[in-house]
Amino acid sequence: MRGPVANVRVWVDMTASAHVLVFRPLIERLRTRGDEVEITARDYAQTLQLLELHGLAADAVIGRHGGRSRLQKARQMTHRLGALRSWAKGRDFDVALAHGSHELAITARRLHIPSSTTFDYEFATLQHQLGCRAATRVVVPEAIPPERLRPYGVEPPKLLQYPGLKEEYYLSDFEPDRSLPESFGVDPGRVLVVLRPPPDVSLYHRHSNPLFPQTLDYLGRLEHVHAFVLPRTEEQREFVRRLALPSVILPETAVDAQSLIALADVVVSAGGTMNREAAALGVPVYTTYGGRLGGVDEALIREGRLKPLTDPRALELAKRDAPGDGRVRRDPGELLRLLLSALDG
Prior knowledge:
Layout: E1 9-14, H1 17-32, E2 36-43, H2 47-53, E3 60-64, H3 70-88, E4 95-98, H4 102-110, E5 115-118, H5 125-134, E6 137-141, E7 159-162, H6 166-170, H7 180-183, E8 191-196, H8 211-219, E9 225-229, H9 234-243, E10 248-249, H10 257-263, E11 266-269, H11 272-280, E12 285-287, H12 295-302, E13 307-308, H13 332-339
Parallel strand pairs: 1-2, 1-4, 2-3, 4-5, 5-6, 6-7, 8-9, 8-11, 9-10, 11-12, 12-13
Protein backbone atom coordinates (compact mmCIF):
# COMPACT_ATOMS: atom_id res chain seq x y z
CA MET A 1 0.00 0.00 0.00
CA ARG A 2 1.46 3.32 -1.03
CA GLY A 3 1.76 6.36 1.21
CA PRO A 4 -0.72 9.26 1.42
CA VAL A 5 -1.73 10.74 -1.92
CA ALA A 6 -2.05 14.51 -1.94
CA ASN A 7 -4.17 16.90 -3.99
CA VAL A 8 -7.14 14.65 -4.53
CA ARG A 9 -10.84 15.40 -4.86
CA VAL A 10 -12.74 13.49 -2.20
CA TRP A 11 -16.48 12.85 -1.90
CA VAL A 12 -17.83 11.98 1.57
CA ASP A 13 -21.45 10.86 2.08
CA MET A 14 -23.04 11.04 5.53
CA THR A 15 -26.38 9.33 6.15
CA ALA A 16 -26.52 9.22 9.97
CA SER A 17 -25.38 11.28 12.94
CA ALA A 18 -22.37 9.11 13.81
CA HIS A 19 -20.85 9.61 10.36
CA VAL A 20 -20.19 13.27 11.14
CA LEU A 21 -18.09 12.27 14.14
CA VAL A 22 -16.10 9.65 12.23
CA PHE A 23 -15.22 11.92 9.32
CA ARG A 24 -14.69 15.23 11.11
CA PRO A 25 -10.96 14.67 11.89
CA LEU A 26 -10.38 12.95 8.53
CA ILE A 27 -11.86 15.87 6.59
CA GLU A 28 -9.76 18.29 8.63
CA ARG A 29 -6.60 16.37 7.71
CA LEU A 30 -7.54 16.18 4.03
CA ARG A 31 -8.24 19.89 3.78
CA THR A 32 -5.15 20.80 5.77
CA ARG A 33 -2.93 19.01 3.26
CA GLY A 34 -4.66 20.71 0.33
CA ASP A 35 -7.22 18.14 -0.80
CA GLU A 36 -10.71 19.18 -1.90
CA VAL A 37 -13.57 17.58 0.02
CA GLU A 38 -17.25 17.77 -0.89
CA ILE A 39 -19.96 16.42 1.42
CA THR A 40 -23.39 14.99 0.70
CA ALA A 41 -25.74 14.26 3.59
CA ARG A 42 -29.10 12.66 4.20
CA ASP A 43 -31.68 14.59 6.23
CA TYR A 44 -32.01 12.06 9.03
CA ALA A 45 -31.89 12.30 12.83
CA GLN A 46 -29.34 14.98 13.82
CA THR A 47 -26.94 14.60 10.90
CA LEU A 48 -27.37 18.14 9.60
CA GLN A 49 -27.31 19.70 13.07
CA LEU A 50 -24.11 17.86 13.93
CA LEU A 51 -22.45 18.98 10.70
CA GLU A 52 -23.13 22.57 11.74
CA LEU A 53 -22.07 21.91 15.34
CA HIS A 54 -18.70 20.58 14.14
CA GLY A 55 -18.06 23.39 11.68
CA LEU A 56 -18.88 21.40 8.54
CA ALA A 57 -21.47 21.98 5.84
CA ALA A 58 -23.14 19.70 3.33
CA ASP A 59 -22.59 20.71 -0.28
CA ALA A 60 -25.85 18.92 -1.03
CA VAL A 61 -28.61 17.48 1.18
CA ILE A 62 -30.00 14.48 -0.67
CA GLY A 63 -32.72 12.11 0.57
CA ARG A 64 -34.27 11.27 3.89
CA HIS A 65 -34.99 8.18 5.97
CA GLY A 66 -37.68 5.85 4.63
CA GLY A 67 -39.11 5.02 8.06
CA ARG A 68 -40.14 1.49 9.03
CA SER A 69 -41.83 0.58 5.76
CA ARG A 70 -39.68 -1.58 3.48
CA LEU A 71 -41.49 -0.15 0.49
CA GLN A 72 -40.76 3.43 1.55
CA LYS A 73 -37.13 2.54 2.27
CA ALA A 74 -36.81 1.04 -1.20
CA ARG A 75 -38.38 4.11 -2.78
CA GLN A 76 -36.13 6.46 -0.84
CA MET A 77 -33.04 4.44 -1.81
CA THR A 78 -34.02 4.47 -5.47
CA HIS A 79 -34.63 8.22 -5.36
CA ARG A 80 -31.39 8.89 -3.51
CA LEU A 81 -29.30 6.73 -5.85
CA GLY A 82 -30.56 8.70 -8.82
CA ALA A 83 -30.06 12.04 -7.12
CA LEU A 84 -26.54 11.16 -5.94
CA ARG A 85 -25.55 10.07 -9.43
CA SER A 86 -26.88 13.28 -10.97
CA TRP A 87 -25.04 15.36 -8.38
CA ALA A 88 -21.70 13.50 -8.53
CA LYS A 89 -21.51 13.02 -12.30
CA GLY A 90 -18.96 15.33 -13.85
CA ARG A 91 -17.48 16.51 -10.54
CA ASP A 92 -14.26 14.58 -11.22
CA PHE A 93 -13.88 12.94 -7.82
CA ASP A 94 -10.77 10.81 -7.32
CA VAL A 95 -12.19 8.81 -4.40
CA ALA A 96 -15.43 8.43 -2.44
CA LEU A 97 -15.62 7.61 1.28
CA ALA A 98 -18.49 6.56 3.53
CA HIS A 99 -19.35 4.91 6.83
CA GLY A 100 -21.85 2.29 5.76
CA SER A 101 -23.54 4.35 3.03
CA HIS A 102 -24.21 1.65 0.47
CA GLU A 103 -25.73 4.33 -1.75
CA LEU A 104 -22.35 6.05 -2.06
CA ALA A 105 -20.55 2.80 -2.89
CA ILE A 106 -23.12 1.86 -5.53
CA THR A 107 -23.11 5.32 -7.10
CA ALA A 108 -19.32 5.55 -7.07
CA ARG A 109 -19.03 2.20 -8.83
CA ARG A 110 -21.49 3.29 -11.50
CA LEU A 111 -19.42 6.44 -12.05
CA HIS A 112 -16.09 4.52 -11.98
CA ILE A 113 -14.93 6.31 -8.82
CA PRO A 114 -12.80 4.23 -6.38
CA SER A 115 -14.52 4.02 -3.01
CA SER A 116 -13.96 2.89 0.57
CA THR A 117 -16.67 1.99 3.01
CA THR A 118 -16.13 1.46 6.72
CA PHE A 119 -18.38 0.10 9.46
CA ASP A 120 -18.10 -1.69 12.79
CA TYR A 121 -21.24 -3.85 12.91
CA GLU A 122 -21.18 -6.78 10.54
CA PHE A 123 -24.77 -8.03 10.73
CA ALA A 124 -26.54 -5.26 8.78
CA THR A 125 -26.93 -7.87 6.08
CA LEU A 126 -28.78 -6.07 3.28
CA GLN A 127 -26.74 -2.89 3.69
CA HIS A 128 -23.45 -4.80 3.49
CA GLN A 129 -24.52 -7.05 0.62
CA LEU A 130 -25.02 -3.88 -1.42
CA GLY A 131 -22.25 -1.63 -0.14
CA CYS A 132 -19.43 -4.11 0.35
CA ARG A 133 -19.79 -5.65 -3.09
CA ALA A 134 -19.77 -2.23 -4.74
CA ALA A 135 -16.87 -0.74 -2.75
CA THR A 136 -13.21 -0.89 -3.73
CA ARG A 137 -12.05 -1.23 -0.11
CA VAL A 138 -13.85 -2.33 3.06
CA VAL A 139 -12.19 -1.03 6.24
CA VAL A 140 -13.30 -2.55 9.57
CA PRO A 141 -11.96 -3.17 13.10
CA GLU A 142 -9.76 -6.20 13.75
CA ALA A 143 -12.36 -7.37 16.28
CA ILE A 144 -14.68 -8.42 13.43
CA PRO A 145 -13.78 -11.98 12.38
CA PRO A 146 -12.97 -11.91 8.63
CA GLU A 147 -15.08 -15.02 7.99
CA ARG A 148 -18.20 -13.02 8.90
CA LEU A 149 -17.53 -10.71 5.94
CA ARG A 150 -17.02 -13.37 3.28
CA PRO A 151 -20.78 -13.68 2.56
CA TYR A 152 -20.61 -10.03 1.43
CA GLY A 153 -17.83 -10.78 -1.05
CA VAL A 154 -15.16 -9.24 1.20
CA GLU A 155 -11.70 -10.80 1.39
CA PRO A 156 -8.17 -9.38 1.12
CA PRO A 157 -7.04 -7.26 -0.65
CA LYS A 158 -10.47 -5.58 -0.55
CA LEU A 159 -10.59 -6.15 3.23
CA LEU A 160 -8.43 -3.97 5.47
CA GLN A 161 -8.61 -4.04 9.28
CA TYR A 162 -7.44 -1.65 11.99
CA PRO A 163 -6.75 -2.15 15.71
CA GLY A 164 -9.07 -0.81 18.40
CA LEU A 165 -12.29 1.15 18.07
CA LYS A 166 -13.09 3.80 15.46
CA GLU A 167 -14.02 6.04 18.39
CA GLU A 168 -10.44 5.86 19.70
CA TYR A 169 -9.37 7.49 16.41
CA TYR A 170 -11.93 10.26 15.99
CA LEU A 171 -11.88 11.18 19.69
CA SER A 172 -8.08 11.31 19.84
CA ASP A 173 -7.98 15.13 19.94
CA PHE A 174 -11.16 15.52 21.96
CA GLU A 175 -11.30 17.34 25.30
CA PRO A 176 -14.71 17.73 27.00
CA ASP A 177 -16.47 21.02 27.63
CA ARG A 178 -16.71 20.85 31.40
CA SER A 179 -19.26 23.67 31.54
CA LEU A 180 -21.83 21.74 29.50
CA PRO A 181 -23.61 19.79 32.28
CA GLU A 182 -24.11 22.94 34.34
CA SER A 183 -25.60 24.75 31.34
CA PHE A 184 -28.38 22.13 31.28
CA GLY A 185 -29.01 22.29 35.00
CA VAL A 186 -27.26 19.04 35.94
CA ASP A 187 -26.81 18.84 39.71
CA PRO A 188 -23.12 17.98 40.33
CA GLY A 189 -24.15 16.11 43.48
CA ARG A 190 -26.31 13.66 41.52
CA VAL A 191 -25.17 10.67 39.51
CA LEU A 192 -25.18 11.75 35.85
CA VAL A 193 -26.47 8.99 33.56
CA VAL A 194 -26.45 9.63 29.81
CA LEU A 195 -29.00 7.57 27.89
CA ARG A 196 -29.33 6.91 24.16
CA PRO A 197 -32.49 5.21 22.81
CA PRO A 198 -32.42 2.35 20.31
CA PRO A 199 -32.24 3.17 16.61
CA ASP A 200 -35.90 2.20 16.16
CA VAL A 201 -37.97 4.93 14.56
CA SER A 202 -40.48 4.43 17.38
CA LEU A 203 -39.67 3.60 20.98
CA TYR A 204 -43.11 2.20 21.66
CA HIS A 205 -43.60 0.07 18.56
CA ARG A 206 -44.79 -3.44 19.33
CA HIS A 207 -41.53 -4.94 18.00
CA SER A 208 -39.27 -2.68 20.07
CA ASN A 209 -37.10 -3.92 22.91
CA PRO A 210 -38.92 -2.88 26.13
CA LEU A 211 -35.72 -2.77 28.20
CA PHE A 212 -34.74 0.78 27.30
CA PRO A 213 -38.13 2.34 28.21
CA GLN A 214 -38.05 0.34 31.46
CA THR A 215 -34.58 1.67 32.24
CA LEU A 216 -35.62 5.23 31.43
CA ASP A 217 -38.67 4.95 33.69
CA TYR A 218 -36.52 3.54 36.52
CA LEU A 219 -33.80 6.18 36.33
CA GLY A 220 -36.21 9.03 35.69
CA ARG A 221 -37.77 8.56 39.13
CA LEU A 222 -34.56 8.37 41.21
CA GLU A 223 -33.89 11.53 43.22
CA HIS A 224 -30.11 11.03 43.35
CA VAL A 225 -29.84 10.68 39.55
CA HIS A 226 -30.02 13.06 36.62
CA ALA A 227 -30.92 11.05 33.51
CA PHE A 228 -29.81 13.00 30.42
CA VAL A 229 -31.59 11.55 27.36
CA LEU A 230 -30.19 12.04 23.85
CA PRO A 231 -33.00 11.06 21.45
CA ARG A 232 -32.28 10.12 17.86
CA THR A 233 -35.46 11.56 16.33
CA GLU A 234 -38.18 14.10 17.10
CA GLU A 235 -40.62 11.23 17.59
CA GLN A 236 -38.41 9.82 20.34
CA ARG A 237 -38.02 13.27 21.89
CA GLU A 238 -41.80 13.72 22.07
CA PHE A 239 -42.23 10.26 23.58
CA VAL A 240 -39.74 11.04 26.36
CA ARG A 241 -41.25 14.49 26.92
CA ARG A 242 -44.72 13.04 27.44
CA LEU A 243 -43.43 10.77 30.21
CA ALA A 244 -42.67 13.89 32.31
CA LEU A 245 -40.22 12.01 34.53
CA PRO A 246 -38.84 14.25 37.30
CA SER A 247 -35.16 13.28 37.00
CA VAL A 248 -34.96 13.41 33.20
CA ILE A 249 -33.16 16.16 31.28
CA LEU A 250 -34.18 16.38 27.62
CA PRO A 251 -32.36 18.80 25.28
CA GLU A 252 -34.35 20.38 22.48
CA THR A 253 -31.57 20.26 19.86
CA ALA A 254 -28.34 18.39 19.11
CA VAL A 255 -25.76 18.80 21.86
CA ASP A 256 -22.09 17.99 22.40
CA ALA A 257 -22.80 14.38 23.27
CA GLN A 258 -19.12 13.48 23.55
CA SER A 259 -18.63 16.02 26.36
CA LEU A 260 -21.65 14.64 28.19
CA ILE A 261 -20.36 11.10 27.83
CA ALA A 262 -16.87 12.03 28.99
CA LEU A 263 -18.26 13.76 32.09
CA ALA A 264 -20.98 11.19 32.85
CA ASP A 265 -20.81 8.74 35.70
CA VAL A 266 -22.62 6.05 33.70
CA VAL A 267 -23.76 5.63 30.09
CA VAL A 268 -26.67 3.43 29.01
CA SER A 269 -27.19 3.07 25.27
CA ALA A 270 -29.14 0.79 22.99
CA GLY A 271 -26.97 1.72 20.01
CA GLY A 272 -23.36 0.95 19.23
CA THR A 273 -21.61 4.29 18.69
CA MET A 274 -22.34 5.84 22.08
CA ASN A 275 -21.42 2.60 23.85
CA ARG A 276 -18.07 2.56 22.13
CA GLU A 277 -17.49 6.28 22.71
CA ALA A 278 -17.93 5.67 26.43
CA ALA A 279 -15.53 2.71 26.30
CA ALA A 280 -12.96 4.81 24.41
CA LEU A 281 -13.29 7.59 26.99
CA GLY A 282 -13.03 5.22 29.96
CA VAL A 283 -16.63 5.68 31.17
CA PRO A 284 -18.69 2.80 32.67
CA VAL A 285 -21.20 1.77 30.01
CA TYR A 286 -24.12 -0.63 29.72
CA THR A 287 -25.84 -1.85 26.56
CA THR A 288 -29.56 -2.57 26.25
CA TYR A 289 -29.18 -3.65 22.62
CA GLY A 290 -31.61 -6.47 21.88
CA GLY A 291 -30.20 -7.66 18.56
CA ARG A 292 -27.25 -9.86 17.66
CA LEU A 293 -24.00 -8.54 19.06
CA GLY A 294 -21.21 -7.83 16.61
CA GLY A 295 -17.54 -8.65 17.00
CA VAL A 296 -16.64 -5.23 18.43
CA ASP A 297 -19.19 -5.42 21.25
CA GLU A 298 -18.29 -9.05 21.90
CA ALA A 299 -14.67 -8.00 22.38
CA LEU A 300 -15.58 -5.09 24.66
CA ILE A 301 -17.69 -7.40 26.84
CA ARG A 302 -14.83 -9.91 27.09
CA GLU A 303 -12.50 -7.07 28.12
CA GLY A 304 -14.98 -5.78 30.74
CA ARG A 305 -15.36 -2.42 28.97
CA LEU A 306 -19.05 -2.98 28.13
CA LYS A 307 -21.71 -4.59 30.31
CA PRO A 308 -24.95 -6.13 28.99
CA LEU A 309 -27.98 -4.89 30.94
CA THR A 310 -31.03 -7.08 31.48
CA ASP A 311 -32.54 -5.33 34.53
CA PRO A 312 -32.21 -1.59 35.29
CA ARG A 313 -31.90 -2.39 38.99
CA ALA A 314 -28.50 -3.96 38.20
CA LEU A 315 -27.03 -0.56 37.25
CA GLU A 316 -24.14 0.55 39.46
CA LEU A 317 -25.05 4.17 40.11
CA ALA A 318 -22.13 5.97 41.73
CA LYS A 319 -20.14 9.16 41.19
CA ARG A 320 -16.83 8.78 39.38
CA ASP A 321 -13.75 10.24 41.05
CA ALA A 322 -11.49 10.75 38.05
CA PRO A 323 -13.13 11.24 34.63
CA GLY A 324 -10.85 10.14 31.80
CA ASP A 325 -9.19 7.15 33.46
CA GLY A 326 -8.65 4.33 31.00
CA ARG A 327 -8.98 6.52 27.92
CA VAL A 328 -7.43 5.22 24.67
CA ARG A 329 -6.25 7.54 21.85
CA ARG A 330 -5.20 6.47 18.34
CA ASP A 331 -3.96 8.38 15.29
CA PRO A 332 -6.80 9.20 12.81
CA GLY A 333 -4.16 9.46 10.11
CA GLU A 334 -3.85 5.67 10.15
CA LEU A 335 -7.56 5.26 9.50
CA LEU A 336 -7.39 7.82 6.69
CA ARG A 337 -4.46 5.98 5.12
CA LEU A 338 -6.49 2.76 4.94
CA LEU A 339 -9.52 4.51 3.45
CA LEU A 340 -7.46 6.27 0.78
CA SER A 341 -5.95 2.95 -0.28
CA ALA A 342 -8.96 2.71 -2.63
CA LEU A 343 -6.87 4.96 -4.88
CA ASP A 344 -4.54 1.97 -5.39
CA GLY A 345 -7.37 0.21 -7.23
